[in-house]
Design brief:
Elements: H1 2-29, H2 32-54, H3 63-66, E1 75-76, E2 79-80, H4 93-110, H5 117-124, H6 126-132, E3 152-153, H7 159-167, H8 169-180, E4 192-195, E5 202-209, E6 212-213, H9 215-220, H10 222-230, E7 243-248, E8 252-257, E9 264-272, E10 277-281, E11 284-286, E12 293-296, E13 302-306, E14 315-323, H11 329-338
Antiparallel strand pairs: 1-2, 3-12, 4-5, 5-6, 5-7, 7-14, 8-13, 9-12, 9-14, 10-11, 10-13
Helix pairs in contact: 4-5
Domain Aspartyl/asparaginy/proline hydroxylase: 166-325
Organism: Cricetulus griseus
Pfam families: Asp_Arg_Hydrox (PF05118)
Length: 343
Amino acid sequence: MWLEWLVAWSWSLDGLRDCIATGIQSVRDCDSTAVVTVACLLVMFVWYCYHVGREQPRPHVSVNSLLQGVDASVLQNGSMYCQSPECVRCMHHDGLNQKLYHNLQEYAKRYSWSGMGRIHKAIREQGRYLSSQPSIQKPEVFFLPDLPTTPYFSRDAQKHDVELLERNFQAILCEFETLYKAFSNCSLPQGWKVNSTPSGEWFTFDFVNQGVCVPRNCRKCPRTYRLLGSLRTCIGNNVFGNACISVLSPGTVITEHYGPTNIRIRCHLGLKTPSGCELVVGGEPQCWAEGRCLLFDDSFLHTAFHEGSAEDGPRVVFMVDLWHPNVAAAERQALDFIFAPGR
């Protein structure tokens, strides 16, 4: 047995020696240029393997870091417009559920399935949820089940952010007034967007539009922009997140409509609230108050109007989308991934 092993080992060494000798002779016979080329390709391949191996998944960007990451080519008049035919907000429901489930699977592979039960259930039965919802609440894109349902929320729902916004009321109002002076020089200053209404005029000045920051507008209102970065529950990393200044001129009516999802609370901080202005959510009317936040679920049928006179001036609110308080931290992270802008 030992003899057979020694013979086999000797044969292996002979084979290895012959292989090495053959390789050395091949290199000697090759042109030096070819050898250098092969060596360069080998180095490039090793570098590529190292680079791919150490690359981490793209992190979710914060509102602060989005300022440096927006392509100016997708901005029109300072506002972000959808550029992708794959956008989950614009896609028909036929292909939406399949895309969402693919995104959820990708998230679970990178992170974990832990805490994903409700989101998995929502995607699996999304068609049934959306078709069976009562007409008073019918989100257009995504419904997360088992969330408390109410048209309006108390200030305590997101107490920290509400109090922070109200403490900075004067700073936001001051920056708005500086912006609004430009209307005396032209009909629509740069950065403002006109929204469709059956009567009157509705203007918005976006800071975050469908999860993407608008750098030019944020630079014009630095204190408001910094405030957004201080909010704990601001939705800044997915297509359901928005922040803007919203202006209704006297005589304006916003057509009744539904928001895209129930995972958020829309917060309005009153900046200028003349009489004759009202918000109606789920059939319940409420009035804004200057320096105070009004929280509501915009997946309910809602409308707003300004029936005041021209002397009353516009109704102005600072609007920001906050997370619904009953969406857990793990779910927020997953939803940011699944509904990331451009995904």
